[in-house]
Amino acid sequence: MTRAEFLHLMLVGGAGALLGSQARAQSGVAERQPTLGSRPAYDFWFTRLMYESGDWDVDARMPSNLIDALIQYTTLRVDTKERVLPLADSRMLTQPFCYLAGHKLVEFNADERRNFERYVRNGGFVLVDDCNHDIDGLFAKSFEREMASIFGEGALAKLPKKHPVFDAFFKFDGPPNTAFELNGWGDDIVHDYLKGIEVGGRLGVLYSNKDYGCEWDYDWRNKRFLAEDNTKFAVNVVIYALTA
């Protein structure tokens, strides 16, 4: 879907119409929205996934900043509160968008592995961010090993710079850099790619070594001091997750 088509649907039918025709149509995923009477209460809410093996509770201010960007740039009805669910909890299967991050080991237990695979294969979307922003650290190696064990070797692949996620709302020529990369932290590499796992031609996992979580981890009220809003790409990620 082009940005023009998205904006047209938002203006004509509203966010509920857009999501009703696309996101909730994902086969196998349960109804995504809590309801208030007969009317869905929200079009989007942010869900952070807890997992037993690592430090899942990172980048505490990142969700509020992402939420602020959605409110600023779209007409989505957005829940302003972050939700946190264990990956092993079956309630995560009904979420429109999940976030998983950390610095340490990623080693899913049986329930976590089962839910992650079921969620992704049935139309869910997980943004995964390596807070170490490297390719050979503990988080990166262990997470990529988990993905290979669940989805097969090679399932997690580099995304081309023309991938629809880079043009889902704002236009980017590939993934925007982060200050942490440019300052030479992590592996001293500026990663010019993101990775993902596609199911049926649609991304179910978007995986970043760029540390977007830390890049967006500041008080949203300080955004006005930035020359360019660095959370715009977060809007792209969410819109892709809801409409692709």
Structure summarized in a few sentences:
This protein has 244 residues and is of the alpha/beta class.
Q: Compute the CA-based radius of gyration.
A: 17 Å
The main β sheet shows up as: 7 strands, mixed
**Low-confidence region ranges:** 1-38
Q: Mean pLDDT across all residues, rounded?
A: 85
Q: Give the overall silhouette.
A: globular
Write the layout of secondary structure elements.
Elements: H1 3-12, H2 14-21, E1 35-36, E2 39-40, E3 47-50, H3 62-73, E4 83-86, E5 98-102, H4 110-121, E6 126-130, H5 138-151, E7 157-158, H6 179-182, E8 195-199, E9 202-208, H7 212-215, H8 232-243
Parallel strand pairs: 3-4, 3-5, 5-6, 6-9
Antiparallel strand pairs: 1-2, 7-8, 8-9
Helix pairs in contact: 1-2, 3-8
Structure, explained:
- With 244 residues, the protein is α/β, with parallel strands linked by helices.
- The chain has a single domain, classed as Domain of unknown function DUF4159 (Rossmann fold), CATH 3.40.50.
- Strands 4-3-5-6-9-8-7 form a 7-stranded mixed beta sheet, covered by helices on one side. A two-stranded antiparallel sheet has the order 1-2.
Characteristics:
244 residues, alpha/beta, Rossmann fold, 9 strands
